[in-house]
Amino acid sequence: MALNAALLRETFERAKSENGGATSLGMAFYERLFEKYPAVKPLFKTPPEEQHKKLMTSVAAIVGVVEDPERLVPYLHAMGIRHLAYKTVPEHYAAVGENLVSVLGTHLSKEGEWTDEMKETWQAALEVVSNIMIEAGNDPDKFKEEMKDKGYEPNGFKKDDPRPWVLA
Ligand code: HEM
After folding, report:
1. Per the domain annotation, does 51 fall within a domain?
2. By residue range, what is the domain housing residue 12?
């Protein structure tokens, strides 16, 4: 499906500059996630102060290459496979997606507008992202060759790169 890349980028750029920027958005993400979905809290070993930077970097990367499936899809496959190591299950994705759209809406409503179109665009994007990650997590063996070709280990991590969420 065609995603509205321009609107995703425009809203994420706003998120980075409005209402305390990516730090406040990222911290709000974990605060609400743990409050609304307490069952996922024990999965997170890295404190939100660090974790939110990784999430924001990866959302920025995704939004940046959303029109370039050759870069986006292997990146998401690797990320979906890595999430197996974090004990993520497919059912968690709807919660994380709902949470991100909700905090983004609250964040952007503080200084500007958050329209239905923006909300639907982010929901659609998160559904696509989640499905690609889940597909890889469901059958990592199927993506062994792709992982190798793109410089990832079969488990989705990178041998000499401690920050696999950064899209080179
Ligand atoms: C929109 C989909 C998602 C994105 C973009 C995303 C992004 C990230 C990133 C960038 C990391 C850093 C480590 C790495 O890249 O391997 C990470 C780690 C993690 N994610 Fe996700 N994630 C998503 C979905 C989920 C879901 C559905 C869960 C389930 C609760 C989850 C739980 C975790 C956990 C537990 C970690 C490890 C935290 C730690 O180091 O303690 N993520 N995620």
Report:
1. yes
2. 5-73+85-128
